[in-house]
Structure formats: C-alpha cells, structure tokens
Specification:
316 residues, Endonuclease Iii, domain 2, Endonuclease III, domain 1, single chain, alpha+beta, 3 domains
C-alpha cells in the first residue's frame, strides 16, 4: 500500500501488464479504458463471453493473451481474489516471471524484482554490461535483484520503469537529468547510448497465403479461428496457406484476385492475396454475416486490412 494512500488494485495492475506485453502505452490506453469501463472488476470480466472479450481485444494482437486473460480472470474469480505472492500468481494462466513480480510488488508490496525492457536498459547502463541481449538477460536480472529494496518495492519498481521510459531512453538518453548518473558506469565511461548491446536479428521469414471474400447477396462469409494458434479465437474471413492449414476455397464461386495485403507478425512477414467472389452454391464452411453487421473494429489487424481493401468492391 502506498504510504498514506489507498491500496493498489491488483485487477487493474494485472490487466495493464497483460495488455502492455509486446506493445506500447499509447497503443494500449484506449483498450484499457474501454475494458475497465465494460468490466470494472475481475468478477465482471470472468463472467464475460469469450466472443465479447475477443472482439474488444481485436487490434491489440497476440491473441493468446486474450484467451489467457479470460482463463486467468475465471481462475481468480473462483479463488475469490488474486494471490498475494509471486508463487501464487505464477500458478495462474498467462502469468509469468515478469507479470507475477509486477503484481506482487506493486499491488501487494512484496520485495520482488520487476525487470521489463526499460529496467534492463537502466541496469545494463548502470553496471556497463557489455554482453549483448538476449544473452545478458540472466545477468541483468541478477544485478537488478541487488538493487531491489525491502521498503516500498512497488514504488521502486515503477520508478525504475519510468526512468527507463522517460530519461534512460533507447536513443539519446538524457543523462544530465538522471538522478542516478553519479552511480552509472556507462555514463562515466561515455558509452550510455551504446548500451545495451543487442545481437543482430535474423531477417523474418516470408509467407504467402490467400483469403477469400465470399459474397452472397449483402452478406460475407466469416469464421472463428481455432481457439489456439495464430489469431486464435478471432472472427476472420476464410483463409489458407499461411498458417499451416491447406484448405480449399469456402465455396463455389468465380474467384477474382483484387490485390494483396502485407502484414508483419512477430516471427514472419505475410503477403496475403485477397480473392473476391459471389457464391454460386452452398458454402462449405464459415457463416454468412450481413455486411451491415460486420464490425471492422472486432476484426484482428490482418483482417482489417483485408476489409479496407475490399470496401471499394463491396460498396461498404
């Protein structure tokens, strides 16, 4: 609990940390506000339907997080609240080393070491660690642990993350304003901007695939993706070839190529050919949904690009 203040809300801390994985505060802010307006506590989120949560999550990417979010919410609701220890938190779906430490420290004032990308950068410069990332991660965690205080660890954790986000930035760190520059080995050596060192990334593999916009009257075919895997559980246009599924078109039609969309996933880049056709028979899979009922914002990012390309052809 902050001195003289109200206790931190573990629900909001957990939700923000899950949303912030692999993305930025600017990208998450509107989603966080919408989620907390719709579901102000863990019980209301636990009671929400999978489809509603996946729809609200659309656009944040990494859809396994949304599935784990629901599984965790329901597990916490069954327990009657969040565990207040790191070990208890790590037993929940989707909560790993970092998130468990963040919740334990910030919500429950446990002296746990919270290490995100910002903290890695601060520590690597503070101790002038030359080992490149990701190989340096274990050493940076060990060094960070030597700094974690027993008193107000939650405030300390947030201060370190804020320091990395606002002053000890990836490029052009503002060392003159840093409150700990006198203790910083990298600053003393004049190499702060060069750290942390990083192992060069291998180029991303390229994949190709096809997506079908199957039209019948004023409706299009859409399907729910398998619950696990790429875009798991989301509503999408039928597709194949890019995700390990070798599927035929979703029905008979005079298909025509209307262009390509490009999308970059974490581990590969994708060129997806968009085919449009009017069904001449019954669809073999998916469900016809009226165009007026298709919510662009409920589609994952890849399918939003497909939808935007299709609009001139659909007169949406």
């Amino acid at each position: 609990m902050p001195p003289g203040g109200a206790p931190a809300d573990p629900y909001r801390i957990w939700l923000s940390e899950v949303m912030l994985q692999q993305t930025t505060v600017a990208a998450v802010k509107a989603y966080f506000l919408r989620f907390t307006a719709l579901w102000p506590d863990i019980r209301s989120l636990a009671a929400a339907s999978d489809a509603q949560v996946m729809g609200e999550w659309a656009g944040l990417g990494y859809y396994a997080r949304a599935r784990n979010l629901l599984a965790c919410a329901r597990a916490v609701a069954d327990l009657g609240g969040f565990p207040d220890t790191r070990a208890g938190l790590m037993a929940l779906p989707g909560i790993g080393h970092y998130t468990s430490a963040a919740i334990a420290a910030i919500a429950f004032d446990r002296p746990e070491t919270v290490v995100d990308g910002n903290v890695e950068r601060v520590v690597s410069r503070l101790f002038a660690v030359q080992t490149p990332l990701p190989r340096a991660k274990p050493d940076l965690v060990a060094l960070a642990e030597t700094l974690t205080p027993a008193q107000r660890p939650g405030d300390y954790a947030q201060a370190m993350m804020d320091l990395g986000a606002t002053i000890c930035t990836p490029r052009k760190p503002v060392c003159a304003l840093c409150p700990i520059n006198a203790q910083c080995d990298a600053h003393r050596q004049g190499i702060a901007a060069d750290l942390p060192r990083k192992t060069p990334k291998a180029p991303k593999p390229e994949r190709q695939g096809v997506v079908w916009l199957a039209r019948q009257g004023d409706a299009l075919l859409l399907e729910h993706r398998p619950p696990k895997g790429l875009l798991g559980g989301t509503l999408t246009f039928p597709s194949a070839g890019w995700d390990g599924r070798d599927l035929p078109p979703p029905g008979p039609a005079d298909w025509r190529d209307i262009g390509q969309v490009r999308h970059v996933f974490t581990h590969f880049s994708l060129d997806l050919t968009v085919c449009l056709g009017d069904l001449t028979g019954n669809p073999t899979r998916a469900e016809l949904i009226p165009l007026r009922h298709i919510d662009r914002e409920a589609l994952p990012g890849l399918m939003r690009k497909v939808w935007d390309m299709a609009q001139p052809h659909l007169k949406v």
